[in-house]
Design a protein that fits this description.
Dihydrodipicolinate Reductase, domain 2; 351 residues; homotetramer; six-stranded parallel β-sheet; 14 strands
């Protein structure tokens, strides 16, 4: 496999640091450029970043000089990962795409764009064809791919087998979200220690909308959204990593508990045989022990890339209830973007 | 008001200690007898109890000699509060009732008995008439009254205005429950620190069933249960006190958000004018700030006896979603039982 | 007792809010003016403050209009409490004192000033005479009194009986400090959840120096500092309120454990008979149970104004080791300042 | 390297599980026998153990049948690791040693035995010669080696360079210990959440005594203990893994801060060139950033086998203060025992 030179946009932030950590020993991708705000630009990365990951800062990035996030500084990379804040992502990502530099973005800005794939490789790998509709450059060399919100990832991944087998009428979900989802400094300790905050601004609309695009069908280069309502309540709990969801689903075709569990357990990932380096062997882990999954015990399973499911049971209202959990900053952010990039390599979009 | 001599059954346990703390300065009730297991019987209370409340052990109980929980040791009390474990409550509470000693119980054993009131004074005060159907004694002097599960209390209290105004079709609820609900030693810190446990054994069936009895209509001395399904997911979170619920309700008569909020805010407690010492001035507090209620900030409001509501909003699935929260060991346990006793005094059942 | 009109400087900050909460039902002091930065000035307090106390904002302050912190806006108050940030306290407090408005300050700026009393009423009440040395105004009407750092308070209060009875050679102390000590937003949850931070900037020099002024002797209007070295290590732990100290002391006159414990237990507060409203009945509580004191159980004792001591024992190095603990934002900040004001009233400095 | 068959005594407990996890992929040691109490004996390990490690139970042990802890059931192993409770360790470990089965024990029972090495390979590797003094068997085939208490490990490892370079007069230490040190179920969450417990029964005497044996000189097969007093205060804090110590030391030969830091940083491990599989590359990590080390960030460094040091500074009392931290159940328990076994292999005691 050819090695790719990659840049990280927003390299000093929480998501940017996670990209750097995840890519430290990546077999295909090598970080050669780091971009951040003008306040950091010009400094060595080890001076510019307040490193918050628990593993040491990789030696390979320490002495890279931080660049401003403009495409002209990144002409030697093959593509960039974007961990940019949404306040600046639209402008900067557009600049890179127009300059012919593919952008694999964790920002929310382009997720709803009709030509931009919102991608979970195990759920909708075919959506990458949408890239061909993008018009950032005349020759198609610059484009944008996004990964979903950190709750939408385990929610949609767990809904996918049910959607395919039974159809979905509606979903009610309550999330218990980890503090790392708010970045750094993020949630003040005085707010969350020994507490639950029953509201996360802007989160519930993403949970309601993103699964519908992810489960939509691609037709003539456009996604026909799935069509079912999602009622979401997003809460913050004193957990470091791992968003846990309590999900209740109404199915189009009724099924008993055994059939539902069987569908979940026997579900096969469409990218299983692609041997992507970051792909979990089992994208869905189904626990039989009702005490599981738990964020502190299971968020790191399979490198933080697995969605864990438990307590699948017939519901007294609607049809089926279960618990879903995934690592919010790996599977739900930087790790998901890296897996997207790996799929794009295999499919020939990156080369 | 005449003063009552009261006994506490299960006085060394977590619920028994909470009874002792709550009653320390009660204007009507004076603790004169403490019952516990034979292991503690014969010792002074201050030696028998591993006191876990954060306020000091009241002087009035320190030098009481702990008694065995048999009715013959309690012939001088007017009634007893029971914080007994369910493994022994059936036998002991029956013994006391048959001996003519009223039992105000927090145990679950008699909650589903067709002649035993399951009581929240603000919700179903008329159910105390069921006492007249009890046959523990020929003269009606011995009887049992119970209070509900700690999740059922805020759930049912918040459903009551909706049930009366619109009728209820179905309820989906996810609880985030405090560690104090598991007693002492209860939840190991290694299990819950920085974690969520998505299962509490035996809890969900109580959440499903108790609201139906509480909202039932009394007719000819028997309760006709309310009839709607409840789907519950009970989880444990790292919070000291205060169970928080994410509730979604389908209404029989449709209503818009303003009407629903108005019904919740204008609801009046049926016991408002009884001046019960432990009754909160506002049994339901409705927050407009979407960040509230929070267990650490609001569980102690109005002496821990208030149910706090927030985030009332039109739902995309079913009809309305909201957050409810109450102190699980006060409003949801010992404090609820004390309020029951106060109502029973006012209504002449205790004298 | 005449009622006093008081102003709060820094009223929207964490310390300012604590002043407002503590003074809500104060028998002598009534808040009539609130000062904050120009960003807040002109707004109603309920709009200007992000209220973080767990009890509701007192009605009495909600509709006060926030003023800028200049003395001309406060000409109707009898004195002010200052919860100002140290970056602005020197200038503003000087302005008020020069305008003839006494300042009872929690800020650190004037603590080391040779004419400004650093005051713990139970430790050095006579130091208030230093006020007469101050020259802010010609007639002595304007002056400043300060209270110590939140670790210095329990440390010095616990050292006082030992200092008087035996003399002190040296002290080694490790503090485990609550997150509320860092204000709001203060410590990010990602830094402190399930963690210890072994460093608090600027803290250790205050712990080393302030006890020496507090235990100093007043002579001719000036304090002769006590003279012993203190080695401090200040750490942050995941506790909401209550700083806990592990203290080891070398005494000038050697004593055995019984004598030391006896001195600690029999120590009497010099202000015991003044009946100050905020004074704890027992300024030092000595626990015999080695598990105590604990911040979560005991920080609120006696309204948060008590210093709790435990584990007094002969040491294998130096002479005696013990645990001390007090509520950092009450006893160690706003509550300490209020007690200072009460003493100043009794002694005729405020009238 | 020949492969060794090893048994685990106390295999279902917290320490036993940690042994199993650590040995999962060990290049030299293969678990072939598991011993536990008679209650578990006869069951498959996956049925007998309530697995609390966050990684999955290794397949290799799941279907091993748990044995009673008597030597006759373990005749096929080359040696055993003991994670036995101290209430049974004396009897069982003696039985194994007498049967000619070497015991590498984490239990405290034999730590003070004059013929049993108390061993930290980086500190006192030569002490293994004491094995030759043991008389459990006539031919010397059965013997016992122990590893120290979980606080004694980082304390002694950090004192070692100072002891060798300057000599030590005395030590004052306050530990902030993680909850995993109390085993499972261990510390109740109601006791420790948002709290500090300033006492751990039996801990301080081990902290005081074990470093003296570890730093002692071996002469004629016996250890001459180091001779300096240690004053310890052991506290429990809400941290999962990693004991953090605040240490102040009086040196025999005075030195300035630079010399002390230089001695710490330049210290070389005596087993550095033995290439033991579990030995950390850097047994002592010295941080310059005063915020470090922190248990949540650094306890897992180098597989949990590193002792991290920070805040080395001249002290105002005694001579030098610093922070030390190590993973209590890896470096301070099972991992330390495994490293002991590796040293014993290299030195020819196990073959």
């Amino acid at each position: 496999m050819t090695s790719f030179k990659v840049g990280i946009l927003g390299a000093t932030g929480a998501v940017g640091q996670k990209f750097i950590r995840i890519l430290e020993n990546h077999p295909w991708f090598k970080i050669t450029a780091l971009g951040a705000s003008s306040r950091s630009a010009g400094k060595l990365y080890e001076e510019a970043a307040n490193w918050i990951e628990s593993t040491r800062m990789p030696d390979g990035v320490k002495s890279l000089t931080v660049l401003e996030c403009t495409s002209n500084h990144f002409d030697e990379v093959d593509f960039v990962f974007s961990g940019l804040d949404s306040s600046v992502a639209t402008e900067i990502e557009t600049d890179f795409a127009k300059a012919g530099i593919p952008v694999i973005s964790n920002a929310k800005n382009f997720r709803t764009d009709p030509t931009v794939p919102l991608l979970i490789p195990e759920v909708n790998p075919d959506h990458i064809e949408m890239i061909r509709e993008q018009r950032f450059t005349a020759d198609g060399s610059g484009w944008i791919v996004t990964n979903p919100n950190c709750v939408a990832v385990p929610l949609t991944t767990s809904l996918k087998p049910l959607y395919d087998a039974f159809g979905i009428e509606s979903v009610v979900v309550t999330s218990m979200q980890a503090i790392s989802g708010a970045g750094y400094p993020g949630v003040p300790s005085l707010d969350i220690m020994g507490n639950v905050i029953p509201f996360i601004g802007g989160e519930e609309s993403k949970i309601r909308q993103e699964p519908l695009k992810l489960l939509g069908k691609l037709k003539d280069g456009a996604v026909r959204y799935a069509d079912f309502p999602v009622q979401a309540t997003a809460t913050r709990v004193p957990v470091i990593n791992g968003h846990l969801l309590s999900v209740t689903v109404s199915l189009k075709r009724k099924a008993d508990q055994d059939e539902i569990i069987n569908v979940m357990k026997s579900w096969g990932s469409p990218i299983h045989d692609l041997d992507l380096p970051s792909a979990p062997k089992f994208p869905l882990k189904i626990f039989d022990d009702p005490r599981y999954p738990q964020p502190r015990l299971h968020a790191d399973s399979e490198g933080g890339m697995q969605t864990a499911i438990g307590r699948i049971r017939q519901a007294h209202v609607m049809d089926v209830s279960y618990i879903a959990m995934a690592h919010n900053t790996v599977r739900g952010a930087a790790g998901g973007a890296v897996l997207n990039a790996e799929l794009l390599v295999k499919k020939g979009f990156l080369k």
